[in-house]
Specification:
332 residues; six-stranded antiparallel beta sheet; Jelly Rolls; Glycoside hydrolase family 12 protein; alpha+beta; ConA-like_dom_sf
């Protein structure tokens, strides 16, 4: 059984000293990096309503052969208001590849994602290996799992989640009706692009997020400090198991179709769970997770539904302005 937050910090210190291969993080500000240095775990607890807690057992001894690690997070955000507009926590894993990142988006040839996890009510149980949507409904879970990439035309800025001008979110699973920004657009003139990867159809939604009025202490390190364009690829079905699935075609589509400039840098990559509400303890057991970025010639994505009336992204608007200015210079 998990103890109250004030007791968990003491346990975290004891766990680290007794068993150096794992560590327990139950506060909002600590983080932990795997022995190889490849991954850093952030609890990113942003709740301010004292409606619950979060505690994670993180494995420091990552597998350097498969480039994977594992962790287990238990949380409970049981306030009377489900408050789906903002996350309560975002337990996540950040990819540390200084030899590759930052990298121009058009130079990414592969971005394989591997993970095997289960989200279920209660405390950690090794016997549970899959997610039951109905069991999550019983405790009113509102959560989503996704991969996030931060981009900017400046390499250094692309590595700062708060200052990066662009964010790409590749959704993997969603529970409790959680949807991406831009999903509720009712414009009938928009033909949304879609791409099929490994039998899953991803649809593109575009939105703008404003700088947060909250402090970094409240919102964690990912609160946007500048206007941010958000591109969300949303799947037609949930999946909790991926084996080296290459998601780079979703990135390639964005620069080939000039949603983002081909020279835009990808500098920050993270994968995690957007946890917003649960009336009791819920555990996210990540039995395996791994990410990678490969430099090289990208594969062209085969997509559909991108018409002349599609949504205009920030990169496309910049390109249009440049073309117009060029026309004035040439013909003026």
């Amino acid at each position: 059984m998990f103890l109250k937050p004030q007791h968990k910090i003491i346990i975290a210190l004891l766990t680290s000293s007794i068993q150096a291969q794992t560590t327990q993080i139950c506060d909002s500000t600590s983080n932990a990096t795997t022995n190889s240095g490849r991954y850093t775990f952030f609890p990113d607890v942003v709740a301010t309503d004292d409606s619950g807690y979060q505690c994670t057992d993180f494995t420091l001894a990552d597998d350097t052969t498969t480039n994977t690690t594992l962790f287990t997070t238990t949380f409970s955000w049981s306030g009377t208001d489900a408050n789906t507009s903002t996350p309560h926590s975002f337990p996540s894993l950040t990819l540390n590849l200084p030899s590759i990142l930052p990298i121009p988006i058009s130079n990414i040839s592969l971005l394989p994602l591997t993970n095997n996890w289960a989200l279920y009510p209660g405390n950690p149980l090794s016997t549970i290996s899959s997610t039951s949507a109905s069991s999550l409904q019983n405790v009113s879970v509102i959560a989503a799992c996704y991969l996030t990439l931060y981009l900017d035309l400046t390499p250094e800025t692309s590595q700062n989640a708060s200052l990066a001008a662009t964010k790409i979110i590749i959704w993997q699973a969603s529970y409790g009706g959680l949807l991406p920004l831009g999903y509720t657009s009712t414009s009938t003139s928009i033909s949304r692009p879609s791409i099929n990867l490994a039998g899953i159809t991803y649809t593109l939604y575009t939105s703008q997020s404003s700088p947060s009025t909250q402090t970094q202490t409240t919102w964690g390190t990912r609160a946007p400090a500048v206007p941010q364009t958000v591109y969300s690829w949303y799947p037609d079905s949930n999946t909790s198991s991926l084996t080296a699935m290459d998601v780079s075609p979703l990135l390639n589509y964005l620069w080939r179709e000039v949603y983002v400039d081909s020279g835009t840098y990808v500098g920050y990559v993270e994968w995690g769970l957007d946890a917003r509400h649960a009336t009791g303890n819920v555990t996210w057991s990540v039995y395996e997770v791994g990410m990678n970025v490969k430099r090289g010639t990208p594969v062209k994505a085969v997509g559909g539904g991108a018409g002349r009336d599609r949504e205009v992204g920030r990169g496309e608007m910049v390109g249009l302005v440049v073309c117009l200015v060029g026309a004035v210079v040439l013909f003026g």
